[in-house]
Amino acid sequence: MLSEGSSFMKGMALGGIFCLLLSLLGSFTPGMQSSPEDQHHHHHHIKAPTNDELQSLSEPQMLELSQKVRVYCVIMVQPKVLVYWATAKDTWGKHCDQAVFYSSESAKALEAVDLNEQDEWAKLHKALKHAYDNSGDLRWFFVARPTTFAIIENLKYLVLAKDPNEPFYIGHTMKSGELEYVEYESGIVLSYEALRRLVNVFKDGEKCPERGRSLWKLSEEKQLAMCLKYTGVFAENGEDTQGKGLFNSKSVGSLIEDGMSKNSLDVVEGCCSDLAITFSGMSPNQMQVMMFGVYRLRPYGHNFHDSLIFLPPEGSDND
Amino acid sequence: MKTLGSRCAFLIGFLVGTCTLYVFLRQVWFERTFSTRSQPDGLEKTAAQLRELEEDSKNWKKERSALFNLNHPHHKGEDSHMADELYKKVRILCWVMTGPNNLQKKARHVKNTWSRHCNVVVFMSSVDDPDFPTVGLGTKEGRDQLYWKTIRAFHYALENHGDEADWFLKADDDTYVVVDNLRWVLANHTPEEPIYFGRRFKPYTKQGYMSGGAGYVLSKEALKRFVDGFKTKVCTHTTHVEDLAMGQCMEKVGVVAGDARDTNLRETFHPFVPEQHLTSKFPKSFWYWSYCYYPISEGPNCCSDLSVSFHYVDASLMYLLEYYTYHLRAFGYRYRYQPPAPLGYKNEAWDRSEGGHSYSKEQPAIPRGPLARVESPSRTDRKPVVMPPAAAGEKDPPAAAQDDKQ
């Protein structure tokens, strides 16, 4: 009995030491996920150009950049909620160089490309392929959900100094394990090169299946990130010169209310960037108000002398 | 037999030891991270309050129950010389009609947002509050007290601040005012003119009267005549319907009801929130149709780009409107409406550079063509490049240069 008892105690002691050794070696962290210091911060950021950077460009350089920064908008809509299609068409869509609507199924009065598809990833897959095939000479692609509102001029400003013949995959980035992906809800930006590589890898059914594997289905935003990762394209977080995120997955009203509940000193300062690109979850009426707020309402006597001027679209009266 | 038993005991001991230490380490780790995150709540709150007081003292000089603007808000990277000039030349005293029950619910948000753009702000209540601060007008609270409060508030403003402002604005604690745009409207007039501006309604009076909720602004001369009117009993407390009574008095003392619309004849003072003016179809039976002095426009034409006020604005909309007006913008966007500079104000070369001809009242010519250049004379900055407008619904011509598709 005594020998068993002593064996037990010896065993316990050894077990304890064993556990300590392992945790000290660092490859074993008790319980919690790896501490922030341990994670490799492969955070890719893409910041908008500062005024000085833009001023340092010569005029021919500026002209060249301005010709490249034209945007093809991929706007996903659903026939069930026709009003979102109508609102996007009547509001922010007018500021895209080309705005094309993609729907899961056809419907009367809905002018959209019929993808004939219900699966979210398959829809995204087909829409992107269609966009690539029809892009003409447009070099930037922006993918939006039905309730997303985008300020395309601010998108152009963000990517102004970036070469679309380089791969770019930009938006509000999130992390899922080791995969960094762009949140679909707040809009996805792809450069021409990124889309070209994507369309190429679509042909590989193993790396990038058209329909997610039924057993372990990834959300379409993660699936996109994975496919792009195979081609060497990584997600980057779009930020303004101050480091504030430009892509928002909430409506502007919710973000304001968040600021108010945090009881912050300056609700407006803490809310969102002045050059925000997207807000999501906006109702059609809120989108009309945002059109007024962005493109019309302003205080007299305050001017910004931006190095690039965007003229208002033709045939429009709410901007 | 014995050795087997002891070996088992050893193994079990080993497992127990490992598990125990694992749990122990996990607990320690958890507690460590937890303690660094949580902060005593009470301390945080007082720290925030202290910060708020500090911020307040930077922005306002509190004196005689009024707030004098010290820190007219400015933006990084903006050229606000025009706004600054108007701020100096068109001095506005904003008085906000509020009450003791609404200080934290409503008036506080006015204080945090648009009132920061006034030259002087006074919060008028039935009760004195030296901390907020509010002026106690010695009335009771309630709808029937509105005109009493208004009469006393205007008297107070003239008596205590008559020399510190040229124009005197009345607003509710649920009115949002773009004070810079108000200055633009007023800059073509002088404080010696007997005139007042607001959202003009037509019934019950010859020249109309201004909606109370949408806010209205009196010139100094108009204010003097108002106060005199009560001295001479030409004006009295006729009804508690404040805006109508005000309009009747103004008419009696010879103050003109001004037209605050912009040069495109769009209204600037609004009795409702932007969403309603921009998207609602008011039913034909609604009083609004028969009240408005000028023809009503629904949809985008309802509201000037240089709108001055909106009414029925709740707390979150106050901040949202501040964000829309002073913060959120489209980079490089050249607004359709190019307002003319007020008479007597210098036409900066930059105004021309944005395609506007500042003194003309019509739409200025917009530079056309993809490579349209734009002048920028006096500045050392490079001239801005103008992008062609997106043509609605047009398909792009097929790419001529196929060589950049590799």
Explain the overall architecture:
The radius of gyration of chain A is 24 Å and the shape is globular. An eight-stranded mixed β-sheet of chain A has the order 1-11-7-10-5-2-3-4, with helices on both faces. In chain A, strands 6-12 form a two-stranded antiparallel sheet. Chain A has a two-stranded antiparallel ribbon with strand order 8-9. Chain A starts with a helix and ends in a 9-residue tail after the last strand. Chain A is built from eleven helices and 13 strands. Chain A is α/β, with parallel strands linked by helices. In chain A, 37% of the residues lie in helices and 16% in strands. Chain B has 406 residues and is α/β, with parallel strands linked by helices. In chain B, 37% of the residues lie in helices and 13% in strands. Chain B has helices spanning 2-37, 41-59, 81-89, 103-112, 146-161, 179-186, 220-231, 242-252, 274-279, 287-291, 315-327, 349-353, and strands at residues 60-63, 66-69, 92-97, 120-125, 134-136, 167-172, 175-177, 195-197, 200-201, 209-210, 216-219, 256-257, 309-311, 385-387. In chain B, strands 1, 2, 3, 4, 5, 6, 8, 11 and 12 form a nine-stranded mixed β-sheet that branches. A two-stranded antiparallel sheet of chain B has the order 7-13. Chain B has a two-stranded antiparallel sheet with strand order 9-10. Chain B is elongated and about 115 Å long. The model of chain B is unreliable at 36-40, 349-379 and 392-406 (pLDDT under 50). The interface between A and B is large, with 95 and 111 residues. Strand 13 (308-310) of chain A pairs parallel with strand 14 (385-387) of chain B.
